[in-house]
Every structure is written in structure tokens, then in C-alpha cells.
Amino acid sequence: MKKSIVWLASYPKSGNTWTRVFLANYLANREEPLAINDVHRFGMGDSIAKSYQMVTQGRVDLNDQAQVLKARDLVLQAIVRNNADVNFVKTHNICGSAHNVELIPERYTRSAVYIIRNPLDVVLSFARHFGYDQEHAVTAMGHSHHVTTPDGPTIWQFLGSWTDHVQSWTLERRFPVLVLRYEDLLTAPEEHFGRLLEHIGIPPEAERLEKAIRFSSFKELKKQEDDSGFVEKSPKTDSFFAKGTSGQWKTDLPPELARKLRKQHRKTMKKFGYLE
């Protein structure tokens, strides 16, 4: 089997879906925006409950971590078995192990794209998505053994703390990893989405790039969700797409929680330019 997986990785609520929508629009190259509910056709996730049921013929208990982890390799094998040169796979899992099971095996991996976002903004979306209050979200993001629980469509996801997650992907040396800052994608999309295309071996075409960026704007994504819903929306929130901005923490995050996040993640935040 080929090493065909290109991981599209991030801590939850850091821009993974936006990046995948851009990539799907670029690859589709249509004259109108791709439906957000069709994005999965250009790449799947590694935590989709239905995939685990399929590869085990329904014999996996999705509430049992050990069973799910045992089935993970079968899911990844099923992805690469199509013999394609590239298979895009979304993941929020840490680049490490859970209960001695390797989550991101080199034997299936071609490369990875890692999207990082200021944790002061992440925590706002993270809390809303998972139905946490902000204080609980800050605590979860600082917990080295943080795991999201199954919610129906999605199985366990092994995150660790925000710092653990970022370090696990950005210090990875077994395969090439392109690191993109969410904030740079906002301020200079042509440059940084262009870097993404180059990383996966596609020379960017200026007109096509501009169109894909426009078709994946937050205004467009929000409009589509309002009109048709979005299959990836958490059952604990009213909508998936919110403002898609940076710096919202300055008005929406209590100062004491901002201080706590900075204390927990100071070294990593400083490394990636998130300390003022």
C-alpha cells in the first residue's frame, strides 16, 4: 500500500474545515461554490463513526475506547487501499499514541498540513462547539489527557493539551509537515493557501486560486449553512460557522481566563507569535 495520506490536522476550531473547503473548491474548479456538504468527497475524516462500523461490520462498540483504537488501523488501511497517490484525511488527533496505539502511522503517511490558531480565539469557538462554559474550555485545553467523547457521528478524538497538540505536529520529523497560521490565511490568503497547494504538489494558478479563496469565504460558508445546514455541525451548538475572525478574544474572553491560557501555553504561544 502507498504512503498516500496527507493529513489535514489541527486542534479543534482552528480552521481545519475552512482549509478543506478551500482545497475542495480549488480541486473542483467549478464556476460556482462547491456545496459545503459535498466537501467530504475530496477527503474524509479519521474519526467518523460510520467508517469504524463499516470496517468491523458493525462489531465495534463506539463507546469503548479500546475497541475503537483497535479498529483504527483497519480504517486507515481502508483509506489507502484505493491505491491513489493522495488521500486527504482530516484529523484533530494528536500526532502521537493513545493507549500504545499509534494514531498517525508513518507507514500510511505522505505528508501533513497543520493549521494553528491563537488559543485565546480557539477557546471561544471550542467552548461554543462542545457546549462548555469558557472556564471549562480553558481547563480542557490545558489538560494533557483531554479526549473528546463520541457524539453520534464522531468517535473519540485524542487531543491532549493545546500545547501538547501543537508540539506533536510541528516538531514531527518522520514526514514533511507544513505549518500554517490561521491568522496568516486571513490576512494573506493568496500567499498561504498557495503554500498549501505547493506542499501537496499542485502549482498554484492565480485565477483559480483567487476563485477558490472567494468561494470559501466565511460569508459564503455561513450563507450555505443558513440555507442548507452543515453535516459537521455539533449537536451542542446552533451553527458551525461563526465570524471567522481573529482577535475576538479581546472583547469576548474575560481577562482572568486570558491570563490563565497565557500561563499554560506561554512558551508555545511565544514561538508562534501569539504573545503581544
Brief overview:
With 276 residues, the protein is an alpha/beta fold. The protein contains 12 helices and 9 strands.
Give me the CATH fold name: Rossmann fold
**CATH superfamily caption:** P-loop containing nucleotide triphosphate hydrolases
Report on the biggest sheet. Answer: 5 strands, parallel
Average pLDDT, rounded to a whole number, is 91
Number of domains: 1
Task: Return the CATH class.
Answer: Alpha Beta
Q: Describe the oligomeric state of these chains in a short phrase.
A: single chain
Assign the structural class, choosing from mainly alpha, mainly beta, alpha/beta, alpha+beta, or little secondary structure: alpha/beta
Strand content: 5-15%
Q: What does this protein structure show overall?
A:
Helix 1 packs across helix 9 (206-215) and helix 8 crosses helix 9. The longest helix has 17 residues, at 255-271. The model has no long low-confidence stretch (mean pLDDT 91). The chain has one domain (5-271): P-loop containing nucleotide triphosphate hydrolases (Rossmann fold). It is globular, with a radius of gyration of 18 Å. The protein has 276 residues and is an alpha/beta fold. The chain has a 5-stranded parallel beta sheet with strand order 2-3-1-6-9, sandwiched between helices. It has helices spanning 16-28, 49-55, 65-80, 119-130, 134-141, 162-170, 182-187, 189-199, 206-215, 218-228, 249-252, 255-271, and strands at 5-10, 44-45, 87-91, 97-98, 101-102, 109-116, 147-148, 157-158, 177-181. Helix content is 45%, strand content 12%.
